[in-house]
Amino acid sequence: MKFREKKIEWLYKGFFEFKKLIVEFETFEGDYKEANVEYFHRGDSCCILLNQSETKELLLVEQFRFPTTINDSGWIIELVAGSIDKGETPEDSIKWEIKEEIGYDVKEVEKIGHYYLSPGGTTERIFIFYADVKQTDKTTSGGGKLGESENIKLVKLPYSKVDNQLNKNQIIDAKTTIALQWFQKKLSLIE
Question: Whole-angstrom Cα distance, residue 105 to residue 53?
Fold first, then answer.
């Protein structure tokens, strides 16, 4: 299937980018259609589900996310996450985010997968990882990057409460839900 960009207009170019264009694309029937498209380009991101198996807890974070105030309180429980800088691998990026946000030093990560967060409006992909950690892997206080207005709290979720959190819609972040459901399946295969 083929496509081509016919007319491109940058609506905004800053930390984020917004683009408006006309795209001509081949249909399933073999002819061509035009579509007006507007999209948000923010680059890729990464996140990780950390398992502290010695205490049977998953390590998450809670922080303020203003866009969620449209429908919720603004405070959200989610995975450690961050943007991937140009030239940085998703693996290196997530290791840095772990140290910055919750103070753990992680050497090895396992990729769960990568996903488009909202393919109708943004180019962003998120790479989801998993790693086992020990209490002794905590080497700094974490809490977020100074100078970036972050205020991040470590949340320890016992295995026994994962199902309840998911079923009662306490976890409302999509990437976190994907990772927790993946973990439940992994745990059921181990037991």
Answer: 16
Spatial CA neighbour of 62 closest among 45, 79, 82, 84: 79
Residue 134 CA: distances (Å) to CA of 34, 62, 188: 54, 20, 21
What are the chain's domains? 3-41 (no CATH), 45-190 (3.90.79.10)
Confirm if 21 and 6 have CB atoms less than 8 A apart. yes
Nearest-angstrom CA–CA distance, 118 and 13: 20
Structure tokens at 34: 């035009």
Q: In Å, what is the CA distance from 159 to each residue of 50, 102, 182?
A: 12, 19, 13
Single pTM value for the model: 0.91
Enter the DSSP assignment of 139: -
The contacts of residue 126 (CB under 8 Å, 6+ apart) are 44, 45, 46, 47, 81, 114, 115, 117, 175
Tokens of 120: 């109708």
Other Cβ atoms closer than 10 A to 104: 24
Q: Which helix (H) or strand (E) holds 88?
A: none
Contacts of 190 (CB under 8 A, 6+ apart): none
pLDDT digits (tens, 9 = 90+) for 69-99: 999 999 999 999 999 999 999 999 999 999 9
The separation between CA 80 and the C-alpha centre of its own chain, rounded to angstroms, equals: 8
